[in-house]
Each structure stands twice: as structure tokens, then as C-alpha cells.
């Protein structure tokens, strides 16, 4: 019987077990100090359930692996610039926002990443496009894909500054390599010649090699109209769309549903 099943089956009350100072010191030297928070309860469980030594160790190490996996995922999500509140479990299904749920279920499987396919999330302002993109980014991080999210205007501004300090090629190489690149709010502002060139290079270099998610409140022809170089823009969009799913999101403003209500406590209080 597994430790979890034994725990569920037990009915005897557990008594707290004191952990010796020597054991605490040894665990800290082995970088297992975080286990000390739950070790007394785990020792008590092992005693009341008469767990064999190997099952007790399995339970203990499973706790540590889970903790480290969560810590690693949180760190990589921060490095990817993902919003910590925009995860799949936090989506409000009661909203009237509408999109293809069958396609969304397929996207959540992340098979499109294995096939180096793209995704365009399109729809009016405020319907949750950024939320959905972030949610897929978090899912990808947990599967240990490399992810980077950046708002389009900030990305192109950063790349413009990189030209001035001769780090542009290095920055572009990093963007070429990331397994999932999320560009949020593309074409919210016009793209100049350098910005269109950067967009073209990103799409061409990543085409059929890595996945890109684009969110925009404009459709393809409107996105193209915002680019200074129409030829490069058309070439980039053709490549992007030829290997892309398209998720159209419509309905009421999802963002307005997230506004704090009277009497609602802020999370940072």
C-alpha cells in the first residue's frame, strides 16, 4: 500500500514527534532543511501507520521533489515575465467570453509546442487574450519548456536600444532560441522600419523551429497595415499564419470582471 493510501486509511490520532538537533543539522548540510517543516508530521504518520523504512523515505523524498518542482516552476515563470495571477486554474468560467473550447483544450495539451506551431489569439480589447497567453506560458514552464513573454511595444523598444549598445544580435539570438515566445498586443502601435525588420527576423528564424504566440486586437490585414515595410511584413505574417492556430476571443470585457468589488480585500494587504 502506498504512503498516501495508508495516510487516507489511518484513523488513529497522530502525535507530534520531536526532531533531534543532530538530524536537523544533517538535513541542512544535505540541503534538505525545507523538509523540517513537515518532518514531525511525517514521522508521526510513519509511526501510526507502521510504514516500512523504504515507504517512509519515498514519502519524504516525494515531498521534497514536489517542493523543488514548484519552486523551480515559480522561478522560471518569473524569469519568463509571466503574470503569476494568470494561470489556467484562475480563469473565470462564468464569464460570457466565447472562444473555441475544443481548440483551447488542444492548445492546453501543448502538442503545438512539440510540432513548433504558432498561435494567434485575436479579439477586442479586454476579453482575456493576455490571460490566455499567460496561462499557456505557465503550463509550458511546468513542462520545462523555455518561455519568454513580452509586450510588443516594450520588446521593440528594447531591441532598438540594443542597437545602440551593440547587443542587438545577442538579444535576437536569445529570442530565436526560446521554445515559446509570447508577443503580447502586437500592432497596438505602428511598427517602424526597424521594428518591422525585427519582427520579420524573429518570425523567419523561428519558423518551424520554435513556437510563437501572438495576441492582438487586430486581424492579419490590419496588423500588416501597421507595418512600415509592407513587403517584409507580409512575408513575416505569411510564415506566421501558415503554421498557426487562430483562437478568436469575443464577448464582454474579462478585465472588468477582475475589478475589485466593494468590501473586497486586496491581495497585498
UniProtKB/TrEMBL annotation:
SUPFAM superfamilies reported for this sequence: P-loop containing nucleoside triphosphate hydrolases
Ranges of residues in domain AAA+ ATPase: 115-238
InterPro entries linked: AAA+_ATPase, DNAC/IstB-like, IstB_ATP-bd, P-loop_NTPase
Highest taxon of source: Bacteria
A Pfam family: IstB_IS21
Protein name (database record): IS21-like element ISMt2 family helper ATPase IstB
Amino acid at each position: 500500500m502506498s504512503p498516501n493510501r495508508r495516510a487516507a486509511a489511518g484513523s488513529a490520532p497522530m502525535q507530534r514527534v520531536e526532531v533531534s538537533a543532530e538530524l536537523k543539522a544533517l538535513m541542512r548540510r544535505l540541503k534538505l532543511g525545507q523538509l523540517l517543516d513537515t518532518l514531525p508530521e511525517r514521522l508521526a504518520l510513519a509511526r501510526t501507520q507502521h510504514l516500512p523504512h523504504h515507504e517512509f523515505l519515498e514519502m519524504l523524498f516525494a515531498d521534497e521533489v514536489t517542493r523543488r518542482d514548484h519552486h523551480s516552476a515559480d522561478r522560471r515563470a518569473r524569469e519568463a515575465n509571466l503574470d503569476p495571477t494568470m494561470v489556467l486554474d484562475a480563469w473565470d468560467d462564468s464569464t460570457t467570453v466565447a472562444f473555441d473550447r475544443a481548440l483551447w483544450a488542444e492548445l492546453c495539451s501543448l502538442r503545438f509546442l512539440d510540432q513548433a506551431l504558432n498561435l494567434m489569439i485575436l479579439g477586442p480589447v479586454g476579453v482575456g487574450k493576455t490571460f490566455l497567453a499567460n496561462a499557456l506560458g505557465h503550463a509550458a514552464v511546468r513542462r520545462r519548456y523555455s518561455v519568454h513573454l513580452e509586450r510588443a511595444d516594450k520588446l521593440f523598444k528594447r531591441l532598438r536600444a540594443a542597437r545602440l549598445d551593440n547587443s542587438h544580435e545577442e538579444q535576437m539570438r536569445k529570442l530565436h532560441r526560446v521554445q515559446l515566445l509570447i508577443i503580447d498586443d502586437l500592432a497596438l502601435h505602428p511598427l517602424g522600419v526597424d521594428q518591422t525588420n525585427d519582427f520579420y527576423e524573429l518570425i523567419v528564424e523561428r519558423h518551424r523551429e520554435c513556437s510563437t504566440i501572438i495576441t492582438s486586437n487586430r486581424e492579419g490585414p490590419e496588423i500588416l497595415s501597421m507595418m512600415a515595410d509592407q513587403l517584409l511584413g507580409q512575408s513575416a505574417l505569411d510564415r506566421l499564419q501558415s503554421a498557426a492556430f487562430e483562437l478568436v476571443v469575443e464577448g464582454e470585457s474579462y478585465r472588468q470582471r477582475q475589478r475589485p468589488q466593494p468590501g473586497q480585500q486586496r491581495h497585498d494587504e
